[in-house]
Design a protein that fits this description.
Number of strands: 18
Shape: globular
CATH topology of the largest domain: Dihydrodipicolinate Reductase, domain 2
Structural class: alpha/beta
Strand content: 15-25%
Radius of gyration: 23 Å
Number of helices: 16
Length: 442
């Protein structure tokens, strides 16, 4: 029986653990919080758990876990993937992650090849399903003698329409810190042949309405990181437009802009007195007296009326109130995360939703077409979230394919090759994760 080590028992770990146990692998879940690992494994005879904290563990402790498996899945924060990869290379064990390939991970490509192992990354939803579904269409166009003229891709993890019950029109299906940190990133993309660069502080000024076919709610889109490398990754040097964007419910960008402008995205830790309130923290960030009314000071600084949606959002989040900041040494961003974690949880029975849309314009020998590929996936009521399924199941399928010899390429990989994306997408369709296609002549 092949042995799989899963490092991390967070919000997306459930579906891959279940999938791998159902496919007769021995699965060891190693987590800082052992109770989470036990909940994932249940009483399955092929499941094991291990208490393991990567932030405190020695190199030898990690090595021992890796030595005892055939393949390691890192669902840890991305900063630890390279540490796991080096251990896998040392002991010639396969590895899978759902995260973007960092420069440090990419630098391990030759070492992984020499060790004869596969390190498959970016096999989640975004990155992951986005790559695979896009590359399938791109390769089809090229095989038919066509050229890609424009490619735009959008993705968003959101509450299902009937779960949009907070002023923020958002709830947490993955790490709140990751959500907020993404708002600090600069963006870069290509439009009509021109390279557009957006500094991080201007990210939320660059949004526009984006209706989603089949959904009545209003959404908005804004750029997601650097889209330019995907021209080479997707092998479309001919394209005039290359854009990858994030989708959120309308009003998100305007509110997050004020989160950033007010200082709540800052990462530098502050030394605070005990029982420091959010009213005081907001005043401190605004540079006014700690005893002032932070709501009034906020309205004054940003020229906002009391009935403005932003004021309602901040007030509801407790940022003008007397809740105590959870630590005397904390960054504003982590103080904000604390409030998000308390207030933006899904209630029992509520579902999340994953939206992904690709828009292609291409020219074939017989003429030009626009191809829109749309996935709207809903979480299962009182079951796994859409986020956990769309991240975790591609990962688990990738694990199975490596262990069964269906993926034999060595080195640091992402799933943009037909021998990977075709079977993964096919199996995801069987698991009710798929796209609706619309093609029109232009």
């Amino acid at each position: 029986m092949k042995k799989v080590l899963i490092l991390g028992a967070g919000m997306v770990a459930g579906p891959p653990v279940t999938y791998l146990l159902d496919h007769d692998y021995q699965v060891t879940v190693a987590s800082r919080t052992k109770s989470k690992a036990i909940n994932l494994i249940g009483d399955h005879p092929n499941g094991k758990t291990k208490e393991f904290d990567i932030t405190k563990a020695s190199e030898e402790e990690l090595d021992q876990l890796v030595k005892d498996c055939d393949l390691a899945v890192s669902l840890l924060p991305y900063i630890y993937h390279v540490q796991v990869a080096k251990s896998c290379i040392k002991y010639k064990k396969q590895m899978v992650t759902t995260s973007y390939v960092s420069n440090e991970m990419r630098a391990l490509d030759e070492d992984a090849k020499k060790a004869g192992i596969t390190i498959l990354n970016e096999i989640g939803v975004d990155p992951g399903i986005d790559h695979m579904s896009a590359k399938k269409i791109i390769d089809d166009v090229h095989e038919r003698g066509g050229e890609i003229l424009s490619f735009k891709s959008y993705c968003g993890g959101l509450p299902a329409p009937d779960a949009v019950t907070t002023p923020w029109k958002y709830k947490l299906s993955w790490s709140p810190r990751g959500v907020i940190l993404a708002g600090r990133n600069p963006a870069k993309y290509k439009e009509d042949g021109k390279i557009i660069e957006i500094p991080g502080e201007e990210l939320f000024d660059n949004h526009y309405p984006y209706p989603v076919e089949g959904l009545e709610d209003d959404y908005e889109a804004y750029p997601n990181r650097d889209s330019i490398p995907y021209i080479d990754i997707y092998e479309i040097p001919e394209t005039k437009t290359m854009f990858r964007g994030t989708l959120r419910n309308t009003g998100w960008c305007r509110a997050l802009k004020k989160v950033a402008d007010s200082g709540y995205m800052d990462l530098e830790e502050l030394e605070l007195p005990s029982e420091f309130t959010y009213n005081q923290l907001t005043n401190k960030l605004l540079g006014v007296s700690l005893d002032a009314n932070s709501k009034e000071e906020f309205m004054k600084k940003f020229s906002l009326a009391e009935d403005d949606d932003i004021i309602h959002r901040f007030e509801w989040m407790g940022l003008f109130g007397n809740d105590h900041v959870p630590s005397t040494k904390i960054s504003p961003l982590d103080a904000l995360c604390h409030q998000w974690e308390k207030r933006l949880q899904y209630s029992p029975g509520e579902r999340d939703m994953l939206i992904m849309v690709h828009e292609f314009e291409y020219e074939l020998p017989e003429g030009k077409e626009k191809h829109t590929s749309t996935m709207v996936d809903l979480g299962i009521k009182d079951g796994p979230t859409s986020m956990s399924r769309t991240v975790g199941l591609p990962c688990a399928i990738g694990v199975r394919m490596i262990l069964e010899g269906e993926i034999t390429d060595k080195g640091v990989l992402i799933p943009v090759h037909k021998n990977i994306y075709e079977p993964v997408l096919k199996e995801l369709e069987e698991l009710n994760i798929g796209f609706t296609e619309r093609i029109e002549k232009i």
